[in-house]
Specification:
By secondary structure, the chain is of the alpha/beta class. It has 20 helices and 33 strands.
Length: 733
């Protein structure tokens, strides 16, 4: 079973040369590549119009539209169904002749100040005619007698076929990449996903001479083959597993790392690759994290998940480009509305660049250009202000994404209860209640220097941590950090087995309790058929009145799935689980304890998953109360509806406070287009001035009416109205 919070990571700033990185090692990055953070990108893939089925690409026309729309980067496919450049051992489009589309793009874009980034097809499928007629030696062989590669259709035009790295394709790829980097005026290199066996089907074995001979020479084993998968013996399946390991290691060691070394020997440009989603940072081979300088997400998702997904790599210093929009089936149309605009602003406020998918439609639909032109114009105008900004550390919610099966609960009414729904719920509860929050990578737990930046770390139903991370969390709290943990956090080992105790018991000061007698009868009686407790609540205890606000003290809050616990010495119950009819205390609900110089708050209920499923105001309010106990000195307060999401960022002697309005998409449905945005009125903002700082100036980034007042400890601002986005800049002496 996979390790649910993986134990291996490093981010290493490379110079030209071989990789030498140790797990857990994170080095400070310089600002050479900070332009990635404010990049405004058009994505031109060569799998569809204007590159297929016929070649219609006009570099001058696209350069002109990019200039008009405030785009400053084009990512151009140098390979799609065919190569778009000359001088390499790959076929070009039948209509291309002697044209070199990369050079045409450079010639058209560079005079307009637009950077050019080549897309490099990293083991992606190639045109069927290329891998069966022009260069059949590149193809994956699906049978020992040279069976054809996997065939599939992709977008428009000719079908595709799969390739193999263990034959002549490898050297052709090296030569292709070196030609692009050495001979063209480029600003970065973008790679597709580093998948060793990209798009292979069936038993995922290649029977080319390179695979069969190389595997035999290194392992002494022969690759088995059966026409029907059910005919493989256990021994043969074990051999195929070893083949995967051999292939992947060959790919990572002798292709990925050598490609980086070769590129850096020619040009000091950033390397960027596709990882689709933030969870891939941990699940992919760590050498990809070492070798790349930035990542790209092919994801739509809600504004909420976009904010979360950008925050994760930024927490460890990596740049990220999420798609604006996603691929749809009508590349010659542009019908996207304000969702595109607000996605761009959301990327910006959490530190990500923006890459617009399928921009061809803007050639024919100028009316919809405004949804990109406007936010890109704001970024262009204030580019130097935005570059180098980091999220202001306050509460760091650990981004968790996998749960062992025994950790998962399912409710007909509330969906899936697991680490993913809990961590997203914790992040969203903070975000929508205007608590300064970061979604942090699990790799932060590997590095004490990164960890200690956060006054509070939130482990929302995180099933397990490695021994090293347990140690780092203990030291973090002992040295003054605050820890929030809920439900089954650290009750599972790395193999997914449930433990009898919390691995963080020493900090949490609670232990799982097996109810007996009358308590067992009460707990059984109050279970609802739809999943979760029925008529059970969290209520502030007598001790808890000194921790919670007076408003919270007069309320009861919903209990969701919970872990019955007993309190150990040193723990204080500040909220009880009570019955609804007489509000009789049944079990500890929230327990607080001290550990060294820090504090620990444990909540026995997975209230975050409840918030994620339904977003009840009371649950969000309770999560905010818990966070405020952990971090009493909030960096700001904001009086505004939840639709105005905010984030505080900083660099050197400046702070930038972002506010993005998303009242349009009421149900946060991915891919849902919206064409009307309601303004937010009567917004009050108070930003605490950091200790030892004196305010030199206060300004805003979008022209609007507002009032400001600078006091000894804070900057107060009032906005009668905020439309799509607003930024407040504080500069200090």
């Amino acid at each position: 079973m996979k390790n649910y919070i993986s134990i291996l990571f490093a981010i290493l700033l490379f110079s030209a040369g071989t990789v030498d990185a140790q797990p857990g090692q994170i080095l400070e990055k310089d600002n050479r590549y900070d332009w990635i953070q404010t990049a405004r990108i058009f994505l031109m893939d060569a799998y569809q119009p204007p590159f297929a089925p016929v070649l219609e690409y006009d570099a001058e026309a696209f350069a002109e539209i990019m200039s008009q729309m405030n785009v400053n980067v084009i990512r151009l496919g140098t390979m799609g169904k065919y190569a778009t450049i000359q001088g390499i051992r790959f076929s070009t489009h039948p209509d291309q002749g002697e044209r070199d589309l990369l050079q045409e793009t450079i010639d058209a874009c560079k005079p307009k100040g637009i950077k050019v980034i080549p897309y490099v097809s990293t083991g992606h499928k190639l045109a069927w005619s290329m891998v069966t007629e022009d260069y059949p030696e590149y193809a994956r062989k699906s049978t020992p007698d040279g069976g054809l590669p996997d065939r599939s259709h992709m977008y428009v035009g000719e079908d595709h076929g799969t390739v193999c790295w263990m034959g002549p394709y490898r050297q052709a790829f090296f030569d292709y990449v070196e030609h692009v980097v050495r001979d063209y005026n480029i600003d970065a290199v973008y790679f597709d996903a580093w998948f060793p066996r990209y798009f292979w089907r069936g038993n995922r074995v290649c029977y080319c001479d390179g695979c069969r001979t190389g595997f035999r020479n290194d392992t002494g084993l022969e690759l088995p083959y059966h026409e029907n998968d059910r005919d493989y013996t256990p021994s043969e399946l074990e051999t195929i597993k070893k083949y995967y390991e051999w292939y992947d290691e060959e790919f990572m060691s002798n292709i990925l790392l050598k490609v980086r070394e070769m590129i850096k020997s020619h040009k000091d440009v950033p390397l960027i690759s596709n990882i689709n989603n933030p969870e891939r940072m941990a699940s992919q081979d760590p050498r990809i994290n070492y070798a790349m300088d930035a990542f790209l997400y092919e994801r739509g998702h809600s504004i909420l998940e976009r904010a979360e997904g950008v925050s994760v790599p930024r927490s460890v210093g990596l740049h990220v480009w999420p798609y604006i929009g996603t691929y749809h089936n009508w590349p010659r149309l542009s019908f996207q509305g304000l969702n595109y605009q607000q996605e761009i602003f959301t990327n910006l406020m959490f530190g990500g660049g923006s890459i617009v998918a399928q921009p061809t439609g803007y050639l024919y639909h100028p009316d919809n250009r405004q949804y990109v032109t406007y936010p890109f114009g704001i970024i262009e105008k204030h580019e130097k202000t935005y570059e180098g900004l980091e999220n202001y550390p306050n509460v760091g919610v650990l981004f968790a994404y996998e749960s062992p099966e025994d950790h998962v609960k399912r409710s007909s009414q509330h969906g899936v209860i697991n680490a993913r729904s809990a961590s997203l719920g914790a992040f969203s509860a903070c975000l929508y209640n205007h608590v300064q929050v970061s979604s942090i990578s699990e790799f932060v737990l590997d590095n004490p220097d990164l960890l200690k930046k956060y006054p509070a770390v939130y482990l929302a139903n995180v099933p397990g941590l490695s021994a090293e991370r347990i140690k780092n969390v203990k030291e973090y709290v002992e040295n003054g950090g605050s820890l929030i943990a809920t439900y089954n956090t650290t009750m599972f080992d790395e193999e997914g087995n449930m433990l009898p105790r919390f691995e963080l018991e020493e900090l949490l000061r609670v232990r799982p309790l097996k109810p007996t007698g009358g308590l067992a009868e009460i707990i059984d009686s109050y279970q609802a058929m739809v999943g979760g407790p029925n008529d059970l609540y969290l209520k502030v205890s007598e001790i808890g009145t000194g921790y919670f606000s007076s408003e919270a003290g007069n309320k009861i809050y919903p209990v969701f799935y919970y872990e019955p616990v007993e309190v150990l010495d040193g723990g204080k119950v500040i909220m009880d689980i009570v019955t609804g009819n007489d509000q009789k205390s049944v079990l500890p609900g929230i327990v607080i304890s001290d550990y060294g110089k820090g504090k620990v708050i444990y909540c026995s209920s997975t209230i975050e998953s409840l918030y994620n499923s339904e977003g009840p105001d009371l649950t969000g309010e309770l999560i905010s109360e818990i966070v405020k106990i952990a971090t009493p000195e909030s960096p700001y307060s904001l009086e505004a509806p939840a639709s105005l999401i905010s984030n505080l960022t900083f660099k050197e002697n400046a702070m930038v406070f972002h506010m993005t309005n998303w009242t349009g998409n009421k149900f946060e449905r991915p891919f849902k287009n919206e064409y009307y945005l309601s303004p937010v009125e009567g917004v009050k903002l108070n930003i605490r001035i950091p200790d030892g700082k004196n305010v030199k100036s206060v300004s805003i980034l979008v022209d609007a009416k507002y009032k400001k007042r600078i006091t000894k400890g804070s900057v107060e601002l009032f906005f009668p109205k905020i439309e799509a986005y607003q930024g407040v800049v504080l500069e200090f002496d």
